[in-house]
Amino acid sequence: MKTMCMWVRSGCRKPKFEQLATTPGAAGYIINTAQAAKAKRGKLYIIDAKTADHARTIINLYNKHLAPADPDLLPVVLSLCDDRIVAIGTTAVFAIHGASRAARLWDHRIAKYGAVPDAMDNPLHQDNLHPYSMDDAFGKGLFT
Q1: 142 located within any domain
Q2: Which residues are registered as beta bridge partners of 4?
Q3: Count of domains for the chain
Q4: CA–CA separation, 58 vs 4, rounded Å?
């Protein structure tokens, strides 16, 4: 399974494959297209599927509000902005969460420093804005 970003422009019917949600820079793409979808310039679908045709089949099933024959076909669905941003599949929901977190960190750094210094381009650099710990990621008590 791949996590694909599919975009449907306003006035078009066929979703177009744009990129994988796991590639470098995908968070920026998801943020920009989500803003375009919110401005009603199209719809963004992030889908766990094998191929682009399989993703289009899943989108058609979702848009027709049909229950798929295979119960595992649509395991998790997240719909935002009146069905303009849709995530279908668990990894797709994590992609939206990751893009949202990346946007919050960048906005916080810009507010704190006025810009994002080159030394902070590394995504592993935390600069104590939200220090990473096992408790944050997995909940308290897991490793005690």
Answers
A1: no
A2: 20, 47
A3: 1
A4: 12
Say which residues have a Cβ less than 8 Å from residue 21's Cβ, sequence separation at least 6: 3, 4, 5, 30, 46, 91, 92, 95
103-119 per-position pLDDT tens digit: 777 777 778 877 766 55
Beta strands across the sheet bearing 85-88: 16-20, 2-9, 42-49, 85-88, 77-80
pLDDT given for residue 9 in this prediction = 92
Structure token digits, residue 43? 């719809």
The alpha carbon torsion through 60, 51, 18, 107 (nearest 10 deg) reads 90
pLDDT in tens, 79-90: 888 889 898 888
Which structural domain range is residue 76 located in? 2-99
pLDDT greater than 90 at residue 133: no
pLDDT at 140 over 60: no
CB 33 within 8 A of CB 18: yes
Q: Is residue 19 part of a domain?
A: yes
DSSP string, 74-97: S--EEEETTTTEEEESHHHHHHHH
Amino acid at 23: T
